[in-house]
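4.2 Preliminary Data

To establish feasibility before requesting continued support, the project team ran the inverse folding procedure on a target of 218 residues. The structure was first converted into the token representation described in Section 3, and no sequence information of any kind was made available to the design step. The complete token record follows.
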């Protein structure tokens, strides 16, 4: 069903700069989370699935599929609240970034599609060094949509960066959530990634401990 509906929706879809403010990695950002969370009440009945046309259902399916590639587990609210924030947000999450990529490089890329309001670089919470992601906020939604459309997959420092809509930056989200201080994805990496610190930090620590134990026994 969805394959046919997807093709139908895609066939009918319509493909639809000011001053800027930059901030350093430790500056307080002006990005704002979505505060328009609306609770469901009986006075706001949701449409019954049977009343939706095939095209409408396909568009809803495609919209949710595109918007939920990146999901912040700390978001407080329902899935409907989350999706509504993503549909109106001017903030983007940028992942798979090299530890060596600078804020200036991010700026130069994203300014090509619109007026950037703020850039917040992701930091290792223990040593406050870049840990491979950032948040980019534009002045308007149209610029953010162009960034996702044209810049997602762009090669930066030999890495294809991943760009997703974000529900809005809050202080504290710039820090990695892994046990070692960085991102969780970099904890147990089993291959060497020069752009993201080599082997996984926790895996490397375990291997070092095993090597030290072997030397002691020797």
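Position-by-position output of the design step:
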């Amino acid at each position: 069903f969805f394959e046919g509906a997807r093709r139908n929706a895609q066939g009918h879809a319509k493909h639809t700069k000011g001053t800027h403010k930059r901030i350093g990695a430790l500056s307080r950002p002006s990005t704002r989370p979505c505060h328009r969370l609306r609770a469901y009440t009986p006075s706001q009945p949701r449409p019954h699935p049977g009343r939706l046309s095939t095209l409408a259902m396909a568009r809803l399916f495609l919209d949710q599929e595109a918007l939920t590639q990146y999901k912040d587990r700390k978001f407080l609210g329902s899935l409907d609240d989350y999706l509504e924030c993503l549909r109106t947000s001017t903030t983007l999450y940028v992942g798979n970034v090299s530890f060596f990529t600078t804020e200036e490089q991010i700026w130069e890329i994203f300014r090509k599609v619109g007026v950037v309001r703020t850039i917040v670089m992701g930091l290792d919470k223990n040593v406050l060094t870049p840990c491979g992601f950032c948040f980019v906020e534009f002045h308007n939604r149209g610029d953010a949509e162009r960034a996702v459309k044209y810049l997602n997959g762009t090669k930066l420092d030999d890495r294809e960066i991943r760009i997703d809509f974000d529900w809005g930056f809050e202080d504290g989200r710039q820090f990695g959530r892994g046990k070692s201080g960085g991102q969780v994805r970099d904890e147990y990496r089993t291959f060497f990634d020069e752009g993201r610190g080599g082997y996984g930090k926790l895996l490397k620590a375990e291997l070092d401990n095993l090597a030290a134990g072997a030397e002691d026994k020797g």
